[in-house]
Amino acid sequence: MPTIKNKSIITKTKLFKVEKLDIEFENKVHREYEVISGTGYGAVMVMPILNDEFYFIKEYAAAVDDYSLTFPKGKIDEGELILDAANRELQEEIGFKSTMLKHIYTLDLAPGYIDHKTYIILAEGLSPSKLPGDEPEELIIEKCAKQNLSSFLNENKNIDSRALAALYIYKYGLNNVK
Amino acid sequence: MPTIKNKSIITKTKLFKVEKLDIEFENKVHREYEVISGTGYGAVMVMPILNDEFYFIKEYAAAVDDYSLTFPKGKIDEGELILDAANRELQEEIGFKSTMLKHIYTLDLAPGYIDHKTYIILAEGLSPSKLPGDEPEELIIEKCAKQNLSSFLNENKNIDSRALAALYIYKYGLNNVK
Question: Does A141 contact B at CB distance below 8 Å?
């Protein structure tokens, strides 16, 4: 395994921390890396399924200045359990709560340069329940039957890579939460 | 559409830029966002297929301080064409060149807070050809037959979310490069 010889914080903003790492590889080669980490507790992404339909949301995505298609998701609050965060986001973003939440995968966004975990949660057993959210405007909810996903996804742009990864994880039964 | 009322750079490092955006939504609600963008020209991720096998790489991922499974990938150099970058990375990282490269998708990593595009390139028509890379140590190449992907992926940890997204894109014929 490579060894972290030195680690220093270059800068820290409200949401992000950028660090510089000096890494020594087993062959004694040294390399400097810049890596980002969030300043919070990670995020949940919830895949809600009801009557063989997936529930997606469309929301304004500031980094690309356009609307983006994704699953209900959000930051985990301090001290909050992963599944509680998932059920809260579900109620805030699509107006459902779930009695069958399952954490199936912990996803690494881009492990080479971002230390950010997204917990992928499958949500079945849905029933209406609304909590007030902190969204600046009403989210658009889009449903899609499982068998129509390909054409639905081809019609949408700015899809969050994690939503596509989550669909692969679901479809092929991947599970890294043993 | 929401309007960007103000945009300022909070900090800039060698690799990253963090900006603060003041967004006004159509309902006149204002919200501040912090977003990250890379300082380069985006990245390619290449899916090499030979004899019904995918070629993956395992490389040290500094942000999680562990080895990560992903596809051959790397930054696009200034002035470099996307497919040229893909063919260069292929030769540097797995020792093959391709005569059948196809840009099938432009992937958004996490459009809510990172403006980073990864160009997903399918690479067939492979033949041996090696270029020297800039890796600090030899990359580990892992092949997997298409029909064994689920068990292979379940045995690996720290998988780049973009590799899972790319597999979904490939499997379901998604294409946002018209």
Answer: no
Give the whole-angstrom CA distance, residue A86 versus residue A90.
6
Share of chain B above pLDDT 90, in %: 96
How far is residue B126 from each of residues B41, B50, B105, B129, B171, measured CA to CA in Å? 26, 7, 20, 9, 20
State the pTM of this model: 0.97
Residue A37 has a pLDDT of 87
Residue A144 burial (CB count, 10 A): 18
Using a CB-CB cut-off of 8 Å, the residues of chain A touching B115 are 63-64
0.90 surpassed by complex ipTM: yes
**Is B59's Cβ below 8 Å from some Cβ in A?**
yes
Distances (CA, A) of A155 to A20, B78, B165, B174, B176: 40, 31, 17, 10, 9
Burial B38-51, CB ≥16 within 10 A → b, else e = beeebbbbbbbbbe
User: Over the stretch A114-170, which tens digit does the pLDDT of each residue have?
Assistant: 999 999 999 999 999 999 988 999 999 999 999 999 999 999 999 999 999 999 999
Q: What pairing do the DSSP bridges indicate for beta strands B53-61 and B66-70?
A: antiparallel
What sign does the CA torsion over B138, A9, B111, A47 have? positive
pLDDT one-digit tens code per residue, B12-52: 999 999 999 999 999 999 999 999 988 889 999 999 999 99
Q: In this structure, what are the phi and psi dihedrals at residue B28, rounded to the nearest 5 degrees?
A: 75, 5
Specify burial of residue B9 (Cβ count, 10 A radius: 0-12, 13-18, 19+). exposed
Ramachandran angles phi, psi of B166, nearest 5° = -65, -40
Quick one: DSSP state of residue A79? T
For residue A68, list chain B residues with Cβ-Cβ distance below 8 A. Answer: 108, 111-112
Under the banding of pLDDT at 50, 70 and 90, the label for residue A178 is: confident
Identify the CA nearest to B105 among candidates B43, B159, B157, B158: B43
Distance separating alpha carbons of residues B6 and A103, to the nearest angstrom: 39
| Residues on chain B touching A146 (C-beta within 8 angstroms) | none
Cα(A166)–Cα(A111) distance, rounded to whole angstroms? 16
